[in-house]
Write a structure and sequence with these properties.
Chain lengths: 272, 268
């Protein structure tokens, strides 16, 4: 199982921070004065309809986009002010899965998962294969190492994408709509993996989704090692919080219980 | 009007917006080109990717370059032979064919063929990677896509365009010889003697510098349009077309400028 990247630092400190971030594309505001904090070991669920700015926010955290105004901090480094070359080193501590998986279609599953390991050039080919097998096994995908991405189903591609992100034991994981377009059973499998990653590896995560049930699943379930499944657990113990975006503005930031109690009409409508 | 009295800037006209967009694209193109060249000396160097591209661009383009060169030489011999015979200068057929091929037709036609095949290939391949977020994924995994994707293509295209042009020149001269011997029953030895006697250092240098520049144009234009592709499959298609059109135009224009420059430096 991939090891926990964040174990060396004490829990509770802030690892991701956005301060009054504003971003527009071609004059259209995509994010408008958004601020948030994610603590070590916490999973922040970014909720909102399509086009609310969730994916853009994830890309800002990774430095793939830069804000027009405001600042983005990751591990006490200001991502929004860093040069691209410096960002490459920082990104090695962050794993991201994309909405459409974004697997390299000319590489096999093995080469996709081993991509960053090959780039680092530290491990021997045998050690790399072992690491790839471990990561694929973590996402319940054995025996697909030699397949090409085109031969996999949507759910399998999402899982390979998670395995690829986990290969170097990142301290932060960014999941962009990991269950989008998947059937309910596969979506549950993916969510179980994310819960497993949170509870077994204590990885800090941001998860963008428009599916409220995914967020509630994270907030109400914990990984049970004995049965190797996610099971219902007391709410509040799962280090999961929510940020609701509406047309680029953050209109709610808090726990699942607070979200359910929020009187804002849009929040009520979103929850209904 | 109210905005103007409040001091707001006047809205951009369509022409001003188009000009700004063009200048922005021009700047982006040169930034990408500069970065790609700078990466040649940077680490890590993706040798395997470079050799893979050399195989794809060089070996893949070989048949079209051989055919283009051969038939260009043959058709030149065909067209020139009638006029040269009329003036009693048929023994100069070889030198006209070889000089035209080495100086102009070999580099330009090879570059146009290589460009049509590879600028479009690069634009569509990189464009597809952009629209499917594979480039973002690469950046997310800590890899510089310019270093990994653009620089190997740039090196491979420059090197292979150089060698492919040499092959095209040779095939063209052979094509002219085949027509001279079989079409007008000219003495083959006379053709070869005439063809090689005219090629001095100046014409060889001119003919060998051009493919290096043309190779750079093909790779940078193809990669630039690929990397800036937007808007799904339609955007990739548009990027591919634009890459071929611009690469072809730049090859033709730069051929004239280079010829003028090299003639000025090296003499005729």
């Amino acid at each position: 199982m991939p090891s926990a990247g964040g174990a060396a630092t004490p829990p509770g400190d802030i690892v991701v921070r956005l301060e009054h971030v504003v971003l527009s594309f071609g004059g259209n505001p995509v994010l408008d004065d958004v601020s948030l904090q994610v603590h070590r070991g916490e999973t922040k669920v970014l909720l909102g309809e399509s086009g609310a700015g969730k994916s853009v926010l994830m890309k800002l955290v990774l430095g793939l986009l830069r804000p027009d105004r405001g600042r983005v901090w990751v591990f006490d480094q200001e991502v929004s002010g860093m040069k691209e070359q410096a960002l490459y080193d920082l990104r090695r501590k962050i794993g991201m899965t994309f909405q459409e998986s974004a697997l390299f279609d000319s590489l096999s599953v093995r080469d996709n998962v081993a991509y960053r390991l090959e780039e680092d050039g530290v491990l021997t080919p045998e050690a790399m294969d072992e690491r790839v097998r471990t990561c694929l096994s973590f996402v319940n995908l054995d025996g697909v190492m030699d397949k090409m991405p085109a031969e996999l189903s949507g759910g399998m591609r999402h899982r390979v994408s998670i395995a690829r992100a986990l290969a170097t034991s990142p301290e932060i994981m960014l999941f962009d709509s990991p269950t989008g377009g998947l059937d309910p059973e596969t979506a549950t499998t993916i969510m179980d993996l994310i819960i497993k990653l949170r509870d077994c590896n204590h990885v800090t995560a941001l998860l963008a989704t428009h599916r409220l049930q995914d967020g509630y699943l994270l907030a109400t379930h914990a990984w049970d090692d004995a049965t190797q499944t996610a099971r219902w657990a007391a709410e509040g113990a799962r280090h999961t919080s929510f940020l609701l975006l509406r047309q680029g503005r953050a209109i709610f930031d808090g726990s699942a219980a607070e979200l359910r109690r929020d009187p804002d009409p849009y929040v009520r409508e979103f929850l209904s | 009007m109210a905005d103007r009295t409040l001091g707001a800037p006047p809205p951009d006209s369509a022409l001003s917006q188009a000009l700004k967009q063009w200048l922005f694209s021009f700047q982006e193109f040169w930034l990408l080109t500069a970065q790609a060249f700078r990466n040649i000396a940077a680490t890590p160097f993706y040798a395997a990717d470079t050799f893979l591209q050399m195989d794809s661009i060089g070996v893949g383009s070989l048949p079209i370059v051989v055919l283009t060169g051969f038939f260009t030489g043959a058709v030149m011999a065909l067209q020139l032979s009638a006029t040269l015979t009329e003036y009693g200068q048929i023994d100069r057929l070889g030198q006209l064919v070889s000089l035209s091929l080495v100086l102009e037709l070999g580099p330009v036609l090879s570059a146009l063929m290589i460009g049509a095949r590879n600028a479009s290939g690069m634009a569509s391949e990189l464009g597809s990677m952009v629209v499917t977020e594979q480039i973002d994924a690469m950046r997310a995994l800590g890899t510089d896509p310019v270093k990994k994707l653009v620089t190997p293509r740039l090196i491979a295209t420059i090197v292979m365009t150089f060698f492919l042009t040499l092959i095209a020149d040779m095939c063209g001269i052979v094509g002219g010889w085949v027509y001279a011997v079989m079409g007008i029953h000219m003495n083959g030895a006379l053709y070869w003697f005439s063809a090689f006697r005219i090629l001095d250092a100046s014409s060889m240098i001119q003919g060998l510098i051009k493919p290096l520049i043309f190779g750079g144009i093909i790779a940078t234009v193809g990669c630039y349009y690929g990397m800036k592709a937007r808007g799904g499959t339609q955007g990739v298609g548009r990027a591919t077309t634009q890459a071929v059109v611009l690469a072809s135009l730049l090859i033709i224009i730069s051929d004239f400028l280079l010829s003028r420059l090299l003639v000025g430096i090296l003499g005729t």
